[in-house]
Amino acid sequence: MSTDDRFHKQRIADGLTEPARAANELAEKLGLDPFEVNYWIVDYDEMNELIAYGGFQRRYPHWRWGMSYDRQRKQRQFLGGKAFEIVNNDDPSNAFLQESNELADQKAVITHVEAHADFFRNNEWFRMFSESPDAAAMLERHADVIAEYMDDPEISREAVEEWIDHVLCLEDNVDQHRPFSAALDPEDEPAITADIEDRLDDLDLSEEVRDEVFDESFLDSMTGDEDGTAFPAEPELDVLAFLTAHGKAYDEASERASEYEEWQREILELLRKEAYYFAPQKMTKVMNEGWASYHESRMMADENFAGDDEFVSYADHMAQVLGSPGLNPYKLGFELWQYVENRRNRRAVIEHLLRVEGVTWRNFGDSVDLDRVLEYLEPDPVVTDPVGHLESLAPDDPRIDAETLERVRNGEDVGVERYPWKLLTYQGMAERHYSLVKREHRGFLKRVTQGELERIARYLFETDRYGSVEAALDDVDRAAGWDRMFEVRESHNDVTFLDEFLTEEFVETNEYFTYEFTHTTGDFRATSTAAEDVKKKLMLQFTNFGKPTIAVHDGNFRNRNELLLAHHYNGVQLDLQQAKQTLERVFELWGRPVALKTIRKEFDEHDIEVARRRDREPEPTERGTLLRFDGESFEREDLPDEEIADIRATEVDYDTKPDEWL
């Protein structure tokens, strides 16, 4: 980097010091508790490199990063994409801002990043990897270890890179619902049943002798488990851990399985550890981006963090982010977080109104004027304009920051003219931004149904009654919606988030629908607006990162030390061509034949024609399939129904949380 470039970046950084400090202070006023964030100014190429590296400056040497860099560069060059920021889950977090972005974009990025850093720090799924990550240092250590192996004259660089390719094929096959722990050393695990086949190979017997003396029944008697215990005892979702402990490398020279070299086992475990580190980010994409977009909007627009001369630019930035086509995690997450806030605020209001003398869930619509309720819930001018009411602010008002008020009255310049929120506490901010009275949400309270009123009344345990609607509303906690958001932020992932909050009301209000490939028309069509269909479609896309769930079912399949993997079928069939390519990689990590059982769908042409005439979709026939690879060729066989009972989904099981979290 030239001296001029360094000075240019330093000038940009100096200009962002005050906005970054103020954004952090505002984030804390809003109840956020982020990691400390280090902000770095980078140029166009550096930003592309960071995006390719997943937000870090150093990763292990491998061709995948160059491919990612080239894709990112071309996407921006030819498709007009614009990189606003990248931030990593670390303590402290590191955020990288592109130097060419306008000031409005930089400020928007900073507010967005503060919310991400809060999510990283407080979401339980991130803590399953580490309470306090030191990710940059971990990834740098991994890079050094792998680079040393590649530079070792006794180890082929191509062999190391090919080994990484094999492992990366399975990087999403970890148990994302269990805290990370090191894979067991083979010596710490019960030994796999002795490999009789390998021992017979050592004897160099003729095929005739082998077939006569050491027939199938002999092999079964020597390798079968007397107590019928399977290996592993339960399906193992962490395929990489199982391979680390029990796998062998296939040696082409001897055409035999051999124990892993030290470098092979270490690289496998390093890449597995990285897979666990990145798993929470894949599991919370909608929540995390929605959370950041929500608080960015709150700070930039509602708190005027974007100056008058910056607001149009910011609004264009936000429109680009939320208006991207397809399944947009920013837009879906943003709308869901607003729904969480509004729904909890509405419930708090209804709970208080149902305790007014004479009001019941049956006569609620006739007894309560909701327009008057919304007028009464409008924020107090003291919190909407604390600077204009400076003389009347009371230090003992829980909505007022007494310490800042005292400093202002003592003549200190703390910037309240530019940032009036400094005079407020969390309670004051919650009232200032109370969601139900905002123009875009004013209809939310009125959408309460009789069914919801009845449910709330049934579980209303407070027995004290209010003499008037006004008295009831005086006791409404304006922070109820925000408090609920923080509870959800702490415990949920995308699948549980969608499961709980993607309600019929949300789907209808936001006009979500599903589209599918239809066999009767041969193209994609909108198929349903039903909430349960939309929820199922979305949850299938986010379960297991949207990838098929594969588990180890048997490490001694058919008593031949073969590996049996099973696809936990959820109604979506595997791409068999991709499955074959993956099995070829797994063979290199197991060293012996590997098999995969799954379920495939078959459509009868006659059924398709009948369905076309009746304007509906044909029902497929589901068949069990075993795909086996022995290192040279593939075999495929049909499986009877009893052999696929353990992988067939009668109802979709999203497997979202460990039992103790339910």
Automatic annotation (TrEMBL):
Residue span of region Disordered: 613-632
Pfam families to which the protein is assigned, alphabetical: SpoVR (PF04293), SpoVR_C (PF24755)
Domain SpoVR protein-like N-terminal: 17-345, 479-545
Basic and acidic residues bias locations: 613-622
Occurrences of domain SpoVR-like C-terminal (ranges): 548-600
Protein name from the UniProt record: SpoVR family protein
Organism of this sequence: Natronomonas moolapensis (strain DSM 18674 / CECT 7526 / JCM 14361 / 8.8.11)
